[in-house]
């Protein structure tokens, strides 16, 4: 299948056809089937690519990811980027005025609909690159033909992955160049800086709390896919925990909150090891335990993000508590 972070390319443009769709919903929905890989920190797959998986895995994980980004990471982003090339000012200006709120049934319905559309786009694209995908089954003689040692559908997988990442990079570079030429860039002021080296060291150390134990306990620690997925998961958690510690609030509570996710992961691992000792008697409990872990983890991320106080970055890089105001919904 195409690389997970390439999937938004095929979902986000749909908002041009229906502006009421949620940008966050489309983006997150396009990645929901693969989210369980990053929770497991390995290429583990259960029901994520099915309709029950969308409801039981995709929805809670997407809500947790949206809360983590909009309530915790995005407001801090301008202070965590270097002042070189005005990157901090660019991030502050692009974040300012953005709002994410499910304050009404209508807003919640649009977000869930956007999630589902993004989910369907993921399945559609996967169907072009899977061994038994719809496109491969339509012309097996064509897509199973080997070129340079790989079948055509595998080359298509790599092509779509590169296209998705490249399109995202081109859009970001174009938007940044447009902002640099605008009057808003000249009027913006620098964000309040943090010690970038200390920040990155903190994020790396927190990420290692998950990464190292995962490799030590993995049955196949030399698997390159395991390294890729575990590294992405650890990096994302490290940034989240660093944002939590650098944000407002009492330090003891923030320390306890940043330790909650590793503790949940350790608890789930201990339960699964006990299940393995129990043998077949507990084999039927694997999926319910996995779903319970997903929901507990999602609730923890939402609660921790909310506890950091939903602040809003201004064009000057300062953080303000949100007020009801107009702005583009994301």
TrEMBL record:
Superkingdom of the organism of origin: Bacteria
Transmembrane stretches, start-end: 53-77, 107-125, 155-173, 194-213, 225-246, 253-270, 290-308
UniProt-listed Pfam families: DUF4184
Keyword Cell wall biogenesis/degradation included in the entry's annotation: no
Keywords: Membrane, Transmembrane, Transmembrane helix
InterPro entries from the UniProt entry: DUF4184 (IPR025238)
Repeat recorded as keyword: no
Coiled-coil ranges (or none): none
Official protein name in the record: DUF4184 family protein
Annotated organism of origin: Paenibacillus albicereus
């Amino acid at each position: 299948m195409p690389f997970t972070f390439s999937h938004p390319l095929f979902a986000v443009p749909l908002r041009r056809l229906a502006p009421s769709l949620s940008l966050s919903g489309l983006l997150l929905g396009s990645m929901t089937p693969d989210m369980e890989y990053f929770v497991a920190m390995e290429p583990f797959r259960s029901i994520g690519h099915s309709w029950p998986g969308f409801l039981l895995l995709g929805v809670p994980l997407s809500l947790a990811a949206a809360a983590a980004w909009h309530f915790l990471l995005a407001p801090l982003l301008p202070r965590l980027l270097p002042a070189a090339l005005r990157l901090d000012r660019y991030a502050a200006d692009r974040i300012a005025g953005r709002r994410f709120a499910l304050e009404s049934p209508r807003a919640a319905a649009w977000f869930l609909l956007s999630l589902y559309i993004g989910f369907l786009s993921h399945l559609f694209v996967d169907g072009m690159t899977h061994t038994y995908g719809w496109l491969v089954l339509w012309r097996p003689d064509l897509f199973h033909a080997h070129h340079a040692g790989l079948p055509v559908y595998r080359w298509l997988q790599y092509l779509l992955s590169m296209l998705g990442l490249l399109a995202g990079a081109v859009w970001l570079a174009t938007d940044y160049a447009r902002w640099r030429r605008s009057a808003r860039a000249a009027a913006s002021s620098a964000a309040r800086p943090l010690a970038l080296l200390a920040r990155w060291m903190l994020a790396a150390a927190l990420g290692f709390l998950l990464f190292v134990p995962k490799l030590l306990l993995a049955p196949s620690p030399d698997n390159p896919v395991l390294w890729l997925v575990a590294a992405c998961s650890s990096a994302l958690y490290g940034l989240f925990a660093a944002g939590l510690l650098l944000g407002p609030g009492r330090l003891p509570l923030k320390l306890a909150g940043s330790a909650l996710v590793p503790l949940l992961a350790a608890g789930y691992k201990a339960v699964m090891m006990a299940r393995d000792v129990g043998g077949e008697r507990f084999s039927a409990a694997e999926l319910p335990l996995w779903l319970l872990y997903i929901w507990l983890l999602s609730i923890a991320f939402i609660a921790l993000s909310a506890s950091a106080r939903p602040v809003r970055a201004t064009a000057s890089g300062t953080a303000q508590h949100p007020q009801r105001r107009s702005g583009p919904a994301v």
